[in-house]
Amino acid sequence: MQIAIPIFPRLTALDAIGPYEVLQRLPDSELIFVGHELGNIRTDNGFLGLAVDAVFEDVPSPDVVVFPGGVGTRPLMKDERVLTWLRQAHEATRFTTSVCTGALVLGAAGLLEGLEATTHWGAYDILERTGAVPVATRVVEQLDRRIITAAGVSSGIDMALRLAELLVDSTAAQAMQLMIEYDPRPPFDAGSVPKADAAVMARAMEYSEKRH
Q1: What's this model's pTM, rounded to 2 decimal places?
Q2: C-alpha closest to that of 177 among 160, 153, 155
Q3: CA angle 167, 173, 174 (to 5 degrees)
Q4: What is the SS3 assignment for 106?
Q5: Rounded distance between C-alpha atoms, residue 66 and residue 52, angstroms
Q6: pLDDT tens digit string along 20-32?
Q7: Where in the sequence is the domain holding 129, given as residue range(s)?
Q8: What domain count does the chain have?
């Protein structure tokens, strides 16, 4: 089973690496990072480099696509090379998925037209303009369309565990959860917009602006 994770300049690292940590443990699977050209790319803050293993055209029919997000998705929404690859790959995938603003690229490719989908809370308006119906849900499944979208960043781990269940079984997914010791107990309860007070929201927007 071939799992393709597109990577590109200014992606959000955990969007790709969170699902990678889960899915690379699937039995009989090959996980490959695909991109425009071989070599390293830099994530959204420029600190971390990731390596592209194969160009898009070399991976035409993956079994699974996990499209991560980040500010670097905005140019991809008009990148016909990426959109054509995604449309063609989706024809044969078992599942086409996204994390965070990776959903914007799925939407730009026409895969989310009229469907409920999710993304980072700061990008609902952009997602809606692609024809999707944004919902504030951590993971949104459209199993009849073989599409799963996850909300911001950390939700990609939740999505990957659900994907592991769909691809193998629930015991496999729980074993992977145990292996990565994914048992979150955060010290604060501010992980979604309704839970964040005005001061937290203002600080989040300030930090977000610095990344752009």
Answers
A1: 0.96
A2: 160
A3: 160
A4: helix
A5: 14
A6: 999 999 999 999 9
A7: 2-184
A8: 1
